[in-house]
Amino acid sequence: MLAFYASTHPSPQWQGFLTALAEEFESELDHAQLRQLMARIGQRFADAHPLGQCETIDDLATALNANWARLDWGFVRLADESDHLSLTHLCAPLAAFGPGADTWATAFLEGAYRRWLETLGADALTLKQVRAAGHTELEFRLAR
């Protein structure tokens, strides 16, 4: 992961802007509103970056990682557990929003994954974030 970060950290031209944007968001919206906003942004992102046809979990992982790789947004690992599908996203550049944003900025990924999974027919299931290790490792679960 360190090699990935070293080669793809957020561009300095965006760092100050994104930190200021996050500070403005935090001054105007509460935590729940921030998560809702970021989830909606994630949904719009997913709509703009469709996955295409995915028949298997391996197809899904390949399509998701192709999208993230094109944009230097880290990568995802999928694991088909007995009662849920685990999506673990690693190396997302969300740290660019600053240290206080790690509790709400991650909803961007949740919104994107939710939309992609809905478009593939998983709209009867629920996706939610279950674990975060800062911005470096985020786990989401898709289950009933």
Automatic annotation (TrEMBL):
Short name of one Pfam family? Cellsynth_D
Gene Ontology BP, a term: cellulose biosynthetic process
Domain of life the protein comes from: Bacteria
Name this protein carries in UniProt = Cellulose synthase
- What is the scientific name of the source organism? Trinickia symbiotica
